[in-house]
Amino acid sequence: MPGFWLNGTMSSTDVVSSSPEETMAIGRQLAPRLRAPVLVLLSGDLGSGKTTIAKGIISGLGVAGEEEVTSPTFTLVHVFRNHVRVYHVDLYRIEGFHDLESLALEDAFAEPAVVIIEWAERFTLRTDWPQVTIHLEHVEADTRRITITLPKT
Predict the structure, then answer these.
(1) 90-120: pLDDT as tens digits
(2) Sequence ranges of the domains in the chain
(3) H or E stretch including 88?
(4) Rounded to whole angstroms, how far apart are CA atoms 97 and 34?
(5) Cα dist from 100 to 32, 38, 60, 80, 134, whole Å
(6) Which residues of 66-100 are buried (b: 16+ CB within 10 A; e: fewer)?
(7) Whole-prediction pTM value?
(8) What CATH superfamily classification does 13-149 receive?
(9) Binning pLDDT at 50, 70 and 90, where does residue 81 land?
(10) Are 13 and 148 in contact (CB under 8 A)?
């Protein structure tokens, strides 16, 4: 898999992944660029690789191994702590603002952290934290187009 990078003059890039392993590697490559506080917003259809890229980001941040990262679909929020706090949030089962409010996500924003949110289109809370958006889309069987947009520096 070719590497990718973003710099101050380029805030958005597309990269193609041909396997779940490549998608995790893309997350690992992105992780060193993330500085708390930051909100990482993941969007894409069911099965597009949101949890897979989150595994790469979380392992790349050094707070958990890829095998320790699972989709928080039923628990809704997983918290990892090491040298940085990382919240991995799945909003797939969230139906409205009341459900979102019941997660008490404002606690995640109480101090600097990396907050990774799957199904970001359901996230309606406001924050002034820098935002990284990652959109994943199916191209074919295991191939994904991943669009990563970083805040301009």
Answers:
(1) 888 666 555 555 566 777 888 899 999 999 8
(2) 13-149
(3) strand 85-90
(4) 28
(5) 29, 19, 28, 20, 21
(6) beebebbeeebbbebeeebbbbbbbbeebeeeeeb
(7) 0.86
(8) P-loop containing nucleotide triphosphate hydrolases (3.40.50.300)
(9) confident
(10) yes
